[in-house]
């Protein structure tokens, strides 16, 4: 079975349980972090986007220069760079790193965070802009002739690019859980990204994404599904749960807790995906085989914040429960970022691949 394993890299050693120390861009740490993912057997790593964080284009270029086969999933928010320029920037980076790039498109949940970079559009407008933006980017990559365009958000004449991605276009990942996200993602996404909810709720979201794809005249099976978790493993299930509760105590002692927490947006601007995680937490801390929602509740679910807890065998089987629903990409990141990746490479990922080799997709 072709299931993609994706990690996440940052430029400094920090997390909800690890306060920042040292420079915000630590080249040695970034190099080692990327190499650890490659050594562990990950297919790609996500490079996130925040209004306070290092520029992802530079991060991807540096990490790619210190790895050989690892792919990069670059988070990108439409609206801050013209789509004609974005098409050239993305294509240039992909050419320079040997075709290892994909783009993760995020329209933006928070008005407050968008305004930090000068965007005062509302959320509905942001999704309409994303739709137009991706149409333009695709046309720039596909056209051999200069292009004219006049839309709601963009107007240009004679646009063209001499550079295109290695394979002609980049895989487009798309995040969101709102009706607007389903609508735009159903049209454009090669992979639609979800946060880690209980199995039943995840199945509902997969059905909504596939229905949107069909409404746009696409084969629903052509849209992959990504789901994100924060695995916490131990030698045994009991040991993993002991570690998990220690992590939760640290998160709670730090308040809202993540790096960049001082820049977090108001809870009133919480996206639909975050609210869905909090709704799951209200129904109970534990779901299905190993899903734990307490960290989402403790952090306000400002990001992918639900955990899978247990031994490597338990967590591997829990991940594959989602594959059985139709998930094609598993995105995982740790609370002890580098150490977790190294541990997963020894104990978790081999079991996931072993389970994959013995499973047949359902649905």
Automatic annotation (TrEMBL):
CDD domains assigned: Alkanesulfonate_monoxygenase
TM stretches of this protein: none
GO biological process terms held by the UniProt record: alkanesulfonate catabolic process
Aminoacyl-tRNA synthetase among keywords: no
Top-level taxon in the UniProt lineage: Bacteria
Residue span, Luciferase-like domain: 16-328
Gene Ontology MF term list: alkanesulfonate monooxygenase activity
Keywords for this protein: Flavoprotein, FMN, Monooxygenase, Oxidoreductase
Gene3D superfamilies: Luciferase-like domain
Keyword ATP-binding: no
InterPro entries: Luciferase-like_dom, Luciferase-like_sf, SsuD_RutA_monooxygenase
Protein name: LLM class flavin-dependent oxidoreductase
Source organism of the structure: Saccharopolyspora rhizosphaerae
Organismal lineage: Bacteria, Bacillati, Actinomycetota, Actinomycetes, Pseudonocardiales
